[in-house]
Amino acid sequence: MNHVIYKWKIKPTIPDEIVLPIASKFNISPLLSKILYNRGYDTEDKIKMFITNDIIYLDSPFLFPDMEPAINIIRKHIDANKKILIWGDRDTDGITSVVLLYNTLKMLGCKPIWYIPQSEGYGLNKEIIDRYKQQVSLIITVDCGISSLEEIRYIKQLGIDIVITDHHEPPKEIYEFKNNLDVPVINPYLENYLGFKDLSGVGVVLKLVWGLILSYDQQIINRDFVVLDVETTGLSQIKNEICELACVRIRNFLAKETFHTLIKPQQPIPEEIIKVHGITNEMVLHAPKIKDVLPKFLEFIKDDTLIIHNAEFDLGFINNSLQSLGYPKIENKVIDTLELSRKFFLLKSHSLDALSSEFMFRHKPTHRALDDVYATIELFTYLYYLQNHKIRFFIEDNLDLVTLGTISDIMPLIKDNRIIVKRGIETLSRSRKPACRILYQYLIDKGETLDAENISWELIPILNAAGRMQKSEVAV
Predict the structure, then answer these.
(1) Which of 168, 260, 363, 367 is catalytic?
(2) How many other C-beta atoms lie within 10 A of the C-beta of residue 441?
(3) pLDDT (tens digit, 9 = 90+) per residue, 145-177?
(4) Opening angle at CA 218, ends 212 and 223, nearest 5
(5) Is 389 a catalytic residue?
(6) At a CB cut-off of 8 Å and minimum separation 6, what does 453 contact?
(7) What is the DSSP string of 279-325?
(8) Neighbours of 146 (CB within 10 A)
(9) What is the pTM for the complete model shown?
(10) CA dist., res. 462 & res. 442, Å (int)
């Protein structure tokens, strides 16, 4: 066999002072550094994100606008012990989607059933729906359904609820259609979805079951929290004043509402403090005074739990200002992410700057109140998953299925998909699922390694073959 000799042509415009520090820091070759740089990985954070496989960096399931209503419908049927039908597709992506949702619903105490069309063609089918209409109260589609508008209308006319999960391009009519019929649609190609779009069908199902599992944590999910930060004219809570205040109400770790204002202090801001946060005396010249801000602030936070990085400092300033104006101190429950960080992370510094650098926050702290609030939201999310081992285990334990579906549909291995496949190959090699172990052993017996190429060419055709022979139940 003749080996092909490739001659690489590297863009000559990248100076060594850029690529060599990257190569040194990450222990990679200058050549690889240049390739990464040319592909847009031009900062330490981007490279760290590229090589990581931590599921904490997956986009939140609640970025899907219909995630909460979809979960509410599914929970209603689970809690009422109603029968749920999963409607899938016969390729590997559809099969793994069915299995992931089926196993999750079963784990949650439901008795789901599933159906994959064989000779009837792709998608929902009225004749088959009639077969199940007396048995089920909810149909959930996986890897299909986004274009089956007539069938969806028929299902709703029968008095059956339906949730659509799909990753194919939606028709233009879907927006008015789903709103009129009250049908939650989980699809990354809907216009108002702001997360990673190139998910497989089972990748979309992963987000659904992830959100569904989270919904059982009533202390956190579907509750409002207010994340807070202040900037001041100095460090003394008695002598110095607040010059900026920001609050963001979050629900399911996502920002929903913002309160943000500069505040005009009674005394000028010292030059050494201006150098820290950049708030100048000119900037606050026409800002409202603290006495005008605090009533609106109290109205905004209500009695919601507050999340603050270094709560003693921020609340000290706020409570002093409240007391000076005759208001009582804040009695809201407080979660201090600084205290939690000191508990979980063995670092020299637990400042937002240090934590942002360590964990690659997308929102960087800048010593401005609103930026620091968004960094604190990321930290709070990271801390939540760090403490909830069962949720992390659930996600990681099912990445074998999601990896098979992601590779089978030839999804681009970037962002979420890259994390899923990198971690999923590890999961597949030690999977607790008997079928996955058999597939893995098939490669090992042939003396081959487990990687995306071999999964694509050797394992996925085995699963696809069942569907092509109208025997999807064998693969499932």
Answers:
(1) 367
(2) 10
(3) 999 999 999 999 999 999 999 999 999 999 988
(4) 95
(5) no
(6) none
(7) --TTTTTTSPPHHHHHHHHHHHHTTPEEEETTHHHHHHHHHHHHHHT
(8) 24
(9) 0.93
(10) 11
